[in-house]
């Protein structure tokens, strides 16, 4: 797992940060994943900004992976915390809104449709 790796966001030429989905174990560009965070106060939330403090876990932005992660307890393991029933509800509700399958988000050379990605994590 990621261990206090220091990432300098200076001028690294188009290095796409990759994360592993805790459900399917596939490596994907960070923006193709959703981040879930256990905040320092112990809350488990979906981190839309990718910047929240706490222990994070990444899951593909597709329902299948979420359901798998919630069902198998991969999330609990990754976060080292068991989500409460309430939290699970919230996460499930969130998962329902995700597409069943990702639509070829990362086919190389496809296009630059990712403009609308709202998280400014990669841009200074
Ligand atoms: Zn996945």
Q: Record the strand order, biggest sheet.
A: 4-3-5
| CATH superfamily placement | YlxR-like
Structural class: alpha+beta
CATH-defined fold name: Hypothetical Cytosolic Protein, Chain: A
Strand content: 15-25%
- What's the number of extended β-strand segments? 5
Average the pLDDT over all residues and give the rounded result.
82
**CATH class, anyone?**
Alpha Beta
N-to-C SSE string, H for helix and E for strand: EEEEEHHH
Question: What ligands can be seen in this structure?
Answer: zinc ion
**CATH 2nd-level architecture:** 2-Layer Sandwich
Shape: globular
Number of domains: 1
The number of distinct helices, counting runs of at least 4 residues, comes to 3
How would you characterize the overall build of this protein?
This protein has 124 residues and is α+β, with helices and mostly antiparallel strands. It has one domain: Hypothetical Cytosolic Protein, Chain: A, CATH 3.30.1230.10. It is 23% helix and 18% strand. The protein has helices at residues 63-72, 74-79, 85-96, and strands at residues 18-20, 27-29, 33-38, 44-47, 55-60. A hairpin with a 5-residue loop joins strand 3 and strand 4. The longest helix has 12 residues, at 85-96. It is globular and about 45 Å long. Zinc ion (ZN) binds at residues 21, 23-24, 26, 59-60, 65.
Give a concise summary.
This protein has 124 residues and is of the alpha+beta class.
């Amino acid at each position: 797992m990621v261990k206090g790796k220091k990432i300098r966001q200076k001028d690294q030429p188009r290095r796409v940060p990759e994360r592993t989905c805790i459900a399917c174990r596939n490596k994907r560009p960070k923006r193709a994943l959703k981040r879930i965070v256990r905040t320092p106060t112990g809350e488990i939330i979906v981190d839309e900004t990718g910047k929240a403090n706490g222990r994070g876990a990444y899951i593909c932005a597709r329902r299948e992976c979420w359901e798998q992660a919630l069902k198998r307890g991969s999330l609990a393991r990754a976060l080292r915390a068991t989500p409460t029933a309430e939290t699970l509800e919230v996460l499930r509700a969130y998962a329902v809104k995700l597409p069943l399958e990702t639509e070829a988000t990362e086919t190389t050379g496809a296009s630059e449709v990712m403009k609308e990605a709202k998280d400014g994590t990669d841009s200074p």
